[in-house]
Design goal:
Radius of gyration of chain A: 24 Å
Strand content of chain A: 15-25%
Number of helices of chain A: 9
Strand content of chain B: under 5%
Largest interface: A-B, 20 and 18 residues
Oligomer: heterodimer
Number of domains of chain A: 3
Distance between the termini of chain B: 14 Å
Helix content of chain B: 55-70%
Structural class of chain A: alpha+beta
Radius of gyration of chain B: 12 Å
Number of strands of chain A: 22
CATH topology of the largest domain in chain A: Chloramphenicol Acetyltransferase
Helix content of chain A: 10-25%
Shape of chain A: globular
Low-confidence stretches of chain A: 84-148, 186-206
CATH architecture of the largest domain in chain A: 2-Layer Sandwich
Low-confidence stretches of chain B: none
Structural class of chain B: mainly alpha
CATH superfamily of the largest domain in chain A: Chloramphenicol acetyltransferase-like domain
CATH class of the largest domain in chain A: Alpha Beta
Number of helices of chain B: 4
Distance between the termini of chain A: 45 Å
Order of helices and strands of chain B: HHHH
Mean pLDDT of chain B: 91
Number of strands of chain B: 0
């Protein structure tokens, strides 16, 4: 028997709210299966399980916020004898086992709720209680027509099946999220409002999400600046070969397969990291711990504010087409709030391409516990001296922010040189 | 042949899919879209792909600068359409 715990979905996460279970006791799961939906303060994350087995017990019910490391469910080996209870309906599955690990800073309604007798799945939230235990520093969600609908994927599916208009439902989940129970109208918490349906134009992000994200980013960046002795380097890179090659290549490709300069930049970093693995990994307990694989954290700015840097897994082994597809997928899911746990916890080196928004260069702040961050400014035409002549070429300023505990400027300088070299032979990227 | 009005509706619809928080009525037809909608190169590529899906018009990369504002984009598409019909 092993425990499936609330994972740390990034160094800035202290607790998460379980929004939905996608499995029930008795379900067989394989490593990598998405088993739950968790709300960190930054995003809703689909959480993958790390080993094969059979779900034995769901310990934490939907709607409860628990610290990282709390046992969410227990898992038994796939071949193990199946206890009699396993075949029982889901309603019987959650036992009285007290989730003792729940130690939120202040007693919250939800924390109290879990101490109550076994709840069915999905459990009704206490009708009179506020919908969510707010994270420290967050502002309770304002209810109202302007509130973006927050709906768990399961609830959305059920709503589609039942033909329920989600805009007529008041959610009882965290921050007013609509849960399956609300859609089914079972528990008394689902209040169907008399409010007419608002138009299809999406309302702005709720205030609490924005504030929570600012708090999380602020805490993490403060930690980075407090703990990591950054050093900074920059190098202007001639992009004329890369851009020419890209133009020629794109002429041969259908629109949907066109490549962007950012794909070349990511690929160049991925390959450079293979040559210089000392830039790829973490500073943990006073020592460098190399990353297992090259998982580039791709900094994605969210519309309406905020930043998230999910992992592009094994970027060093991807073709440019795969990088394009991977980044497109990450951006879409980051903005829709559908990232996976491995993408949140795995990045080994972050790349920010702030030049997309026009700046010449970016001096980035390292994402702890990573040891480096690569930044790219805008690719644009600039004066370039070569062979005694002054000309105009497309260039990009690459910057490196690196942890001085893990290495010196000499190493960082070589790293930027290797990235430059990669970009001079775009056909090999 | 799609009318200019329909082309405009298509472009606005594509823009608001890529930038869902933007009020279509608030788009200034003569201000740079990249700046106005805060979109990046991936967003722009997605816009070009979506316009191609809806209108069949293939926009070559070298013509991207000709679609920098809403009015420019509609003008470009109308012209491209006429050229294709005349060819």
């Amino acid at each position: 028997m092993s425990d499936f715990v609330m994972p740390s979905l990034g160094a800035d996460m202290e607790a998460g709210t379980l929004l939905d279970w996608y499995v029930k006791p008795g379900d067989a799961v394989k490593r990598g299966d998405i088993v739950a939906l968790v709300d960190t303060s930054k995003a809703e994350i689909e959480v993958e399980i790390f080993e094969d087995g059979v779900i034995d017990e769901l310990v934490v019910p939907v709607g409860v916020r628990v610290p990282v490391g709390t046992v969410l469910a227990t898992l038994r080996p796939a071949g193990a004898e199946v206890p009699a209870a396993a075949g029982a309906p889901v309603q019987a599955a959650i036992t009285t086992r007290a989730p003792a690990a729940i130690t939120t800073a202040t007693p919250t309604p939800a924390a109290v709720a879990v101490a109550q007798p076994p709840a069915p799945l999905p459990p009704p939230s206490p009708p009179s209680a506020p919908p969510t235990p707010s994270a420290p520093g967050t502002i309770p969600a304002a209810a109202g027509a302007n509130h973006r609908l927050r709906v768990s994927p399961l609830a959305r599916r059920v709503a589609e099946q039942l033909g329920v208009d989600l805009s007529t439902i008041t959610g009882s989940g965290p921050n007013g999220a609509i849960t399956r129970a609300d859609v089914e109208g079972g528990p008394a918490t689902a209040v169907r409002t008399a409010q007419p349906t608002v138009g299809p134009s999406p309302p702005p992000e709720p205030v609490d999400r924005h504030a929570a994200m600012r708090t999380a980013i602020g805490a993490l960046m403060a930690r980075s600046k407090r703990e990591i002795p950054h050093y900074y380097l920059q190098q202007e890179i001639d992009m004329s070969r890369a851009i020419d090659w890209l133009r020629e290549t794109n002429l041969q490709l259908p629109i949907t397969d066109r490549l962007l300069p950012s794909a070349l930049l990511l690929s160049a970093v991925g390959r450079a990291v293979v040559e210089m693995p000392e830039m790829n990994g973490f500073w943990i307990d006073g020592a460098f711990s190399p990353g297992s694989g090259v998982h580039l954290g791709v900094a994605i700015s969210l519309r309406g504010g905020g930043l998230i840097a999910p992992a592009l897994h094994d970027a060093d082994r991807m073709s440019l087409a795969e990088i394009m597809a991977g980044v497109r997928d990450l951006v879409q899911r980051a903005r829709a709030g559908r990232l996976r746990s491995s993408e949140m916890s795995d990045p080994t080196l972050t790349v920010t391409n702030l030049g997309e928004h026009g700046v010449d260069l970016v001096h980035g702040v390292i994402y702890p516990p990573q040891v480096a961050l690569v930044g790219f400014g805008a690719v644009r035409e600039r004066p370039w001296a070569a062979g005694g002549m002054l000309g105009v070429r497309p260039t990009v300023v690459a910057t490196l922010s690196a942890d001085h505990r893990a290495g010196d400027g000499h190493t960082g300088s070589r790293f930027l040189t290797v990235i430059d070299r990669q970009l001079q032979k775009p056909e090999t990227l | 042949m799609t009318t200019d009005q329909d082309l405009r509706a298509i472009v606005i619809s594509v823009l608001t899919e890529v930038a869902p928080d933007v009020d279509p009525a608030a788009i200034d037809p003569d201000t740079e879209l990249v700046e106005q909608l805060d979109i990046d190169s991936m967003d722009f590529l997605n816009i070009v792909v979506a316009i191609n899906e809806r209108t069949g018009i293939e926009i070559p990369e070298r013509d991207y600068p000709k679609l920098s504002t809403l009015n420019d984009a509609v003008g470009y598409l109308a012209h491209a359409q006429k050229q294709a019909a005349g060819a």
